[in-house]
Design goal:
By secondary structure, the protein is mostly helical. It folds into two domains: 170 residues, Alpha Horseshoe (Serine Threonine Protein Phosphatase 5, Tetratricopeptide repeat); 108 residues. The protein contains nine helices and two strands, in the order H-H-H-H-H-H-H-H-H-E-E. Helix 2 runs antiparallel to helix 3, helix 3 packs antiparallel against helix 4 and helix 4 runs antiparallel to helix 5. The longest helix is centred in the C-terminal third of the chain and has 52 residues. The radius of gyration is 46 Å and the shape is rod-shaped. The N terminus is likely disordered.
Length: 319
């Protein structure tokens, strides 16, 4: 979405006129104070010194303001903002200068908007919005009967800045969505087929090895039963019992022991190999199906089905 170029009003010339007026009136005010109390020479001298300091500060502020206007006209908005802020700091914070300072900071806000048009840094707009908001809160005190007209103008400008910020945020969201879409890996059907075969092989091998391992457990249990039975039988035979019966029991016990050893080895080896293969295969297949679902490959489709003599619904998809 293309952000429309705002119709930013020019900076207010009132600031220059107000500064000039203040410079012209400052010495007069000082002389009036001096004549009002001629008996107190120390106070008169102090007031004269203060007036000289204010006169010098206002003169420097006027020069900085004019330099800022030149930078503003040359589209050097960052430098204009810096110069006007310096001028703002130089103007004495008196009741008479409140309108001058307010108009000057207003121009700073407008320059911030123009600066945004150059480098697209939304921080300029946010600073302008904050300045205009503070300025709006002082309109009634600054303009008196003209406050309603000035308030309407400032509110329109704030709405314009808010719209610019909203457009910038919407554009950023759109770009981030496009970037995320470009960075998302495309679904590769061939790679998915190879992975499915690999997972199937792992699951098959894991199941087969695990089955052999469980068979080993069966041998182990059988051996335990045979050995235990033989031991119980030989233990119950008297010493004078038939030697062949005792030897047969011992043979069964040895066979049981052999089955236990074999079962232990078979179960240990094949289960140790089969169960991890099953776990890896199941996890890999789960991830593969999740990727297919995310890519919309396994989405079922519901549609009409026409059959001889009637109609119905069919569900189809790629699984």
């Amino acid at each position: 979405m293309k952000t429309p170029t705002p119709t930013t009003p020019p900076i207010r010339a009132l600031t220059a006129a107000a500064v000039t007026l203040a410079l012209a009136l400052a010495p007069i005010g000082g002389l009036r104070v001096a004549h009002a109390a001629p008996a107190n020479d120390d106070d008169a001298d102090a007031d004269a010194d203060d007036d000289d300091d204010d006169d010098q500060a206002m003169s420097e502020a006027k020069q900085l303001f004019d330099a800022g206007v030149t930078r503003y006209s040359a589209a050097q908005y960052g430098e204009a903002v810096g110069l006007w802020l310096e001028a703002y700091d130089l103007i004495p914070p008196s009741f008479e200068n409140r309108l001058i300072k307010a108009e000057l900071i207003y121009n700073v806000a407008r320059a911030q908007q123009k600066w945004f048009e150059i480098d697209k840094d939304v921080q300029h707009l946010r600073q302008s919005r904050e300045i205009l908001g503070r300025y709006l809160g002082e309109v009634d005190d600054l303009y008196g009967e003209q406050a309603a007209i000035e308030r309407e103008k400032i509110e329109e400008q704030i709405a314009e800045v808010d719209e610019q910020i909203a457009d910038w945020e919407a554009e950023q969201a759109r770009r981030e969505a496009e970037l995320a879409e470009r960075m998302r890996p495309k679904f590769d059907e061939d790679a998915d087929t190879r992975e499915a075969k690999r997972n199937k092989a792992m699951l098959g091998a894991g199941a087969g090895l695990s089955a052999l391992g469980f068979g080993g457990i069966g041998l182990l249990v059988t051996g335990i039963v045979l050995a235990g039975g033989a031991q119980a039988q030989t233990g119950g035979l008297p010493l004078e019992a038939d030697i062949p019966a005792r030897e047969a029991a011992i043979t069964r016990g040895e066979s049981g022991n052999a089955l236990m050893v074999t079962g232990t080895l078979v179960a240990g080896v094949f289960l140790a190999a089969g169960i991890p293969l099953l776990a890896v295969g199941v996890a890999s297949e789960k991830k593969r199906k999740a990727r297919r679902a995310e890519a919309g490959v396994d989405v079922a489709q519901l549609g009409p089905a026409w059959i001889p003599g009637g109609a119905g619904l069919s569900i189809g998809g790629r699984f």
